[in-house]
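Re: [ENG-882] Designed sequences occasionally contain unexpected residues at chain ends

Forwarding the minimal case from QA. Structure tokens:
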């Protein structure tokens, strides 16, 4: 597969009712978030558990709890965008509900192929406005805490 850029990738927010499974999240209803300036970075990492083994003289290591981390999604601030407003509403929603998130890359290997998709449940933890000094376009950085597993559906030629 060829390398690709993030140009023409899409980010969308789903509902809080979908199950935290790939099947539940692919079946959810999504609202695209626009315009996105930076998708940030995301991915799972495991905590390191270690203990000293005096009998062997070595440190023993195991994988601990897996954390999906947080995403800093930077958008060009648009008070009328339905996706950005859905993120703002999710931030103040009662109960700290997690919502489905879908990221579609623009990386299909052939023109008739399918792009890579990522699905995860997220909790919206913040929405900070970057208003600048008048010589910049205003932004809103949404902080999304990943709540569980990240599912990846790889690009394909069919």
């Amino acid at each position: 597969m060829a390398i690709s850029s993030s140009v023409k990738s899409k980010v969308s927010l789903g509902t809080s009712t979908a199950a935290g499974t790939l099947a539940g999240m692919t079946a959810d209803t999504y609202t695209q978030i626009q315009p996105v300036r930076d998708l940030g970075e995301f991915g799972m990492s495991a905590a390191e558990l270690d203990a000293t083994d005096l009998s062997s003289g070595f440190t023993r290591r195991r994988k601990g709890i897996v954390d999906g981390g947080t995403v800093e999604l930077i958008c060009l601030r648009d008070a009328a965008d339905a996706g950005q407003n859905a993120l703002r509403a999710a931030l103040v929603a009662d109960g700290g509900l997690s919502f489905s998130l879908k990221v579609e890359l623009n990386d299909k290997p052939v023109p008739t192929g399918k792009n890579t998709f990522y699905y995860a449940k997220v909790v919206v933890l913040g929405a900070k406005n970057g208003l600048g000094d008048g010589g910049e376009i205003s932004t809103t950085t949404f902080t999304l805490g990943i709540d569980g597993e990240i599912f990846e559906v790889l690009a394909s030629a069919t």
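QA comment: On inspection the terminal residues look reasonable. The first strand starts at residue 10 and ends at 13. Proposing we downgrade this to a documentation issue.
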